[in-house]
Amino acid sequence: PNQLQKNSSKALAAVIGTPLITGPAAITAIIISTSDYGILQTSTAIAIVLAFTLVLLYALSTRSKMKGETAIQVLSTILGLVTIAWGIDFIRTGLLLA
Q1: pLDDT for 52-88, tens place per residue?
Q2: Using CA atoms, how far apart are residues 24 and 15, in angstroms rounded to an integer?
Q3: What distance in Å separates the CA atoms of residue 57 and residue 73, rounded to the nearest whole number?
Q4: What burial letters (b/e) apply to 21-58, b meaning 16+ CB within 10 Å?
Q5: pTM for the full predicted model
Q6: Is the separation of the CB atoms in 27 and 42 below 8 Å?
Q7: 67-95 burial, b if ≥16 CB within 10 A, otherwise e?
Q8: Which pLDDT tens digit goes with each residue over 23-54?
Q9: Over the Cα atoms of the chain, what is R_g?
Q10: How far is Cα 78 from Cα 16, in angstroms, rounded to an integer?
Q11: In the chain, N or C terminus with fewer CB closer than 10 Å?
Q12: Are 30 and 42 spatial neighbours (Cβ–Cβ below 8 Å)?
């Protein structure tokens, strides 16, 4: 692939990945946690999670340079299928309980 395709795939990954880290669920959890536990404990938890996320993303970025692009694509597809299966299970459970 040429340089433009590589840059496009990196930009797409950033656009998809960012809402997963700081999406509506994370914001809701922060609001609820702040009301239940206070600002200090919530801020501490946020700092720990952000530090863990930084370490994890850094480790994965250096590891992706060592692994082949095909292996990363296969793993991404498998994890996507697992996520879809969870979503279907959540919908099914919600419909059965309704």
Answers
A1: 988 887 877 776 666 667 777 777 788 888 888 888 9
A2: 15
A3: 17
A4: eeeeeeeeeeeebeeeeeeeebeeeeeeeeeeeeeeee
A5: 0.53
A6: no
A7: eeeeeeeeeeeeeeeeeeeeeeeeeeeee
A8: 788 888 899 999 999 999 999 999 998 899 88
A9: 18
A10: 17
A11: C
A12: yes
If we measure between CA atoms, which residue out of 21, 16, 9 comes closest to residue 56?
21
Residue 30: name the closest of 43, 21, 20, 19 by CA.
43
With beta carbons less than 8 A apart as the criterion, state whether 21 and 53 touch.
Answer: yes
Residues 46, 30 contacting (CB under 8 angstroms): yes
- Domain ranges for the chain: 1-66, 68-98
Distance of CA 89 to the CA centre of its chain: 19
Measured at the CA of 27, the angle between CA 32 and CA 36, to 5 degrees, comes to 15
